[in-house]
Amino acid sequence: MSPEGNFAVSLRAVRKSFASGVDALDGLDVKIWPREFVSFLGPSGCGKSTALRIIAGLSEPTSGRVEWPPAQAAQERSPAQLAPAQLAPAQPATARARSAIGIVFQEPTLMPWSTVARNVRLPLDLQGEAVTEADARVAAALAHVGLAQFAEAYPRELSGGMKMRAAIARALVAEPKLLLMDEPFAALDEITRFKLNDDLLALWRMLGMTVVFVTHSVFESVYLSSRIVVMTARPGRVFTELEVDAPYPRDSNFRTSAEYAAHCRRTSEALAAAAAIGEGR
Amino acid sequence: MSTGRPSAAAQARLGGEDVLRLLLPVLVLAAGGIAWELSVVWLAIPPYVLPAPHVVFATIVADWKLLSESLLITLVTTVEGFALALAGGVGLAVLFNQSRLIEYSLYPFAVMLQVTPVVAIAPLLLIYLSQEAAVLVCAWIVAFFPVLSNTTLGLNSVDHNLVDLFRLYGATRVQVLWRLKLPAALPYILGGLKIAGGLSLIGAVVAEIAAGAAGSGSGLAYRISESGYRLNIPRMYAALLLLSAAGVVIYFALSLVSYLMLRRWHESAVSREG
């Protein structure tokens, strides 16, 4: 991996201060590699959600910058080089660049007035996708998350876990290269969360995308991630980065293994040290 | 597929409650009518002071041709005023939502129009406008504000994460308005319309009364003031009864529309189990 070429996205000395005077991030440096599963782990207030919003382009950094690989920038200039399976042709460059990102918030954030299928179709509708093509992609996305039978249900008719599945299907329908997830399972019960963790890992491996996952759970981050970025609070910056070198696929055996416990202990210690720095300020 | 739809038993129970909700007001109305009828008979109150209910109903039947024509005129004005309030209220709210400057410039005047009593505006309007137009403008003035203020509230009550999602996918302003803001505002708009329906009738009646004093007009309100001058008290009651019946019908019609549009997704229109 050459430093200047092969990354998925890179945050360079990103600082974000809000009008209230709070410094959410100060000097955040993170490089995300293609197809990796990275967790941002940190105490609340460490700016991990802010970092995610900055990657998504929903928030502008006060200083510093978000860098995208030159290869992708070149692709944006010349549509001919696009892989046809990845992105539909004849889209304006900005829409195409954005469609490479999917996002899942802590809340399912579904439109209550639309059926699950219409919700999942939203990204395609907004980008002017043809109807027949869109229908097929919505059906595929719903099948991926196990909601095929619930296409015509309304969000209020679904359980919390199913709503979150619908939100994931909506993020996947535009076939993103980069999936951003902001504590998506924090509000779910443990049984549902474990199931969704497993399904998310399966989807990540099957679809070959990059995932940036924000969480405050040590156990969740170790189970899911290939790399954990531990952050300090106020101001938010990288405390340390931990590789989780356990092989995929990971399942319930991994969850009860000594290896998993060792990774969790190491990560907990790092998080405690990071929190201590935050409190010492 | 086990979705959260109410079970048959719950629906039966809800059905029972629905019957009660309809039955009780009808019973209270009947009891009130009987008490009224009996008091008039026992106390031998003459019909030019207080007509018994059966006299009022007899008047409705006897004067049906006259009264129904007036009812139609008042209803047409009300519906027109309501339609203009819907278009004006939603249209203005959307305009305000798109441009802060326009909102700051115009909103205070919308409030001013609302807080000035329409009874005081009506005589002036009657000087400048034809009677039909003046009545219509009054109905509109009274009815449009709740639509405007509710729609404004609704358009501003959109889930911020959904707004972000639309931004992420590069939605245009029109897409955000049409696919996000207006659907999110729909329950608020419908709530405003429920109020506006009744207010439009009130506006029409107020203007007709003002116009009636000037000696022209033929709506139900005009019938009331005309019958008052002629001391035809039973017809006053008959016209009043028709007005309130019209108001009730308008309210229920709008409630039904609101229910039908929201029943699949909005908490206000969804019945819950247990």
Structural notes for this entry:
The complex is a heterodimer of chains A (281) and B (274). By secondary structure, chain A is an alpha/beta fold. Chain A has 10 helices and 9 strands. Chain A has helices at residues 48-56, 70-77, 93-99, 116-126, 131-144, 160-173, 190-207, 218-224, 252-255, 258-280; strands at residues 9-17, 23-32, 37-41, 63-67, 101-104, 178-182, 210-215, 227-232, 237-243. Chain A has a 6-stranded mixed beta sheet, sandwiched between helices. In chain A, strands 2-1-4 form a 3-stranded antiparallel beta sheet, with helices on one face. Chains A and B meet through helix 3 and helix 4 of A and helix 7 and helix 8 of B.
Give the rounded overall mean pLDDT of chain B: 88
- Strand order across the largest sheet of chain A: 5-6-7-3-8-9
Question: Which runs of chain B of at least 5 residues are low in confidence (pLDDT < 50)?
Answer: 1-6
User: Which assembly state applies to the chains in this document?
Assistant: heterodimer
Our Rg estimate of chain A from Cα atoms comes to: 19 Å
Helix content of chain B: over 70%
Q: Give the overall shape of chain A, derived from the CA principal axes.
A: globular
Query: Helix- and strand-based class of chain B?
Result: mainly alpha
Q: Largest interface by residue count?
A: A-B, 32 and 26 residues
Q: Please report the number of helical segments of chain A.
A: 10
**What sequence of helices (H) and strands (E) makes up the elements of chain B?**
HHHHHHHHHH
Q: In percent, how helical is the residue content of chain A?
A: 40-55%
Largest beta sheet of chain B, briefly? none
Q: Return residue spans of chain A where pLDDT drops below 50 for at least 5 consecutive residues.
A: 75-98
Strand tally of chain B: 0
Taking all Cα atoms into account, the compactness measure Rg of chain B is 23 Å
